[in-house]
Fold this sequence. Notes:
The chain is an alpha+beta fold and 473 residues long. 14% of the residues lie in helices and 30% in strands.
Amino acid sequence: MTAPSSAVAASAGAVVEGYPSDASVRAGDTLRLHVSTHAPWFRADFYRCGAQIRHMGSIRGPGRHAPPGRHDADWDWPHHDFPVPEDWPSGVYLAVLGPDAAPPAPVPSCAEALDARRSRLLFVVRAREPARTTGILYKVPLFTYHAYNRSGGGCLYGSPPVSASGKATGEFTVSLRRPGGGTGGPVKGHPDAHAPQTPRQTFAHWDAPFIAWLEAAGFTAEYCTDLDLHQTPHLTDGYRLLISAGHDEYWSADTRRNVTAFRDRGGNIAFFGANTCWWRVAVSDDGATARCAKYPPGAREALDVDGTPGAPDHWWESAPENALTGVSYRNGGGYWEGSRPPLGFTVQCTEHPVFAGTGLSDGDILGAAHSLVGYECDGAAHVRDHRGRAVPTGTDGTPTDFTILGVADLPLGPASGWQVPAREDPDPARAATFGLHTKGGTVFTAATTDWARLLSLDPQVATLTHNVLTLLS
């Protein structure tokens, strides 16, 4: 018996929402999808995001509806198991969800065309045999995606949380098992005037452009999430280079410990972003939730948590992130709304191999035409030596052998639009500084979130990036 056309049409218009039980899976293992819909059947189309978008396959399943949950608890929707083919390459995959009655859409041209605030989900396929084909591992910032994901009505931002007994805890919790987390959910934050096509705190905004450029430039990478690095101390074994790009703000203690150990064993790291490792999160044993204490104990009113000392989970107040990255957000700042004035790095030490082929000389400015510095940027406390070059003081935790390759002095004052966080140094000067240092392995930091955005706009940024990857991988 054929369903009435009106029933088919109603099914085709039904919304399908979902999320993965775990946001990463090895090729050949089973991915568990949780799906809710009023449609009798749903369809999920899987796309791998790289130099091109590739349609990798699809599944269909019976639809069941479940109500949405809270932002801080497992939504526990009906699940469907999908065996990931062993021949699927490691990568970041987006699933497009819809009623099975709806016709399949054409393959999109880029990740931003795949992105949406609902009916999408993101997962990473890890290599079944890690590091057999490449020396590069790319880290997807799952914790940061969920910190800004507002599915269920909340995220890691807002007024100080209060316990059931009325005690101000200052501690936020978010579930990693709900829609959103890179795509498919509402996101906290203002639109980006310099890249308005996608919200900032999403995969499509920074990570996808970097990955597309990386693979188009001929580099082969394998992929993981920061939760993988948290749970698996030796996941990085066999790799030469670990990459983080864009906005990698939230780190667990175990993620940081394991990444630092990789560096100490001789592994190289490239941070093509900023505001890196600014907040610490505690992850539940089952990997389902992340918790962050963002207010001083007893705080009951909303504060500028970046600009308020005393927050238990500020990395810089207990173990400054400079020791790993070489820089910190507290020496830079953020520009939250609207377009910002053009600002680039005044370069130095251009005899360094990372500048080969860029045509840059000391004193030239990198990236100003496309507002390279921002929307958030990091820096190292520094002074000028007898040659006029910026050198780190080390007073903020930056290694004294950190080579500053470029400096961008930030305009200060309310009219500038730049907002600056708390720090221990009363000197009002703020500057983004990109550079590198070596301790076991070499760590490069670009010190600005928008580095990836300029890869397709600025040949000098692209050449410098290619040089860094070639040297470190």
